[in-house]
Design brief:
CATH class of the largest domain: Alpha Beta
Strand order of the largest sheet: 7-6-5-8-9-11-10
Largest sheet: 7 strands, mixed
CATH architecture of the largest domain: 3-Layer(aba) Sandwich
Radius of gyration: 20 Å
Helix content: 25-40%
Structural class: alpha/beta
Number of domains: 3
Strand content: 15-25%
Amino acid sequence: MRQDLYQRLRCPRCLARLGLTIEAGPPDHVVAGWLDCWSCVEKYPIVNGIPRFVPVMNYADSFGLLWDSFQQAVLDSALGVTQSRDRFFRETTWKPEDLRDKWLLEIGCGAGRFTEIAFQCGANVVAVDYSSAIDACRRNLGDDPRLHYVQGDIYSLPLRPGMFDYVCCFGVLHRLPDARAGFRELPKQLKPGGQLAVDIAPRRFFRRFGPTAWFRLLTTRLPYAQSMRFSRALTSCLLPLQRVLGRMPFIGRWLQHQLPIAPVETLSACRADLVHERACLAMCDRLMTQHHQPGDVESVAQWLKDAGLEQIEACCDTLIVGRGRKPRGQTTQEPRAA
């Protein structure tokens, strides 16, 4: 943990400043230690250079297991594609040159799929995840003065408000117990003039009533290890069938989407083993996560409006995407500690 990050942290419980006790590492690169709240006397550990503000066991444990098992299955640099980069700039409409030397907050970083893109553009990135996926992100992207990692909760972010030029949250909101409550915390992190981009899965009939929903009745009740073995086995069975259906004229693509497996045709240029790992990851994500709370365009647009943002956009392609900018004259009042 570096000083640039420490200056942006606060106690998520009472909002007070945090003292720092160093057990290992220099003051500007703390490897182990404690963050002590000056008000409520809560203590938060720093482990492997990452400040931790969440319970050891939490509802996102399955995500940690996923990213430990598929650390590089979504990284453009590992797959040799630009899929994540293309999605990042399509959903945000930001330009790579705009991110240079700016502060960007990513909520739900996972193994670093989009963290990598923002970092490559020269941004100072604070990557936050609720699960142990934050460790996979650090292993993938390493240590750099412009990379900062936090294990924290979207509902009570351990960050001072109004500190970021950009905030993004992709693939997260529909996995939360309460998507709207999670979203409400994001605009608070923007500086005046800062920009926000989020996405959420839309409501799909086949996801709610089709094979995916049937399998989830089983997999969400199994221990994680068993659920992952089942998901891997199911992927191995369905991936060849998906490829066969994709070659069928007229109805092949429609039949593909009826299978409880994510399409991987965009990865056709990758090695077969990498495509298989990516398909396994997508299957595990669909079947193992505890929550699936899809949204709609109207709700996302209303969330953006209620947050007081301007230049609001909400649209749906594969996912529902919401964008907005914090008015330049609007400041974020930092709450007083209790």
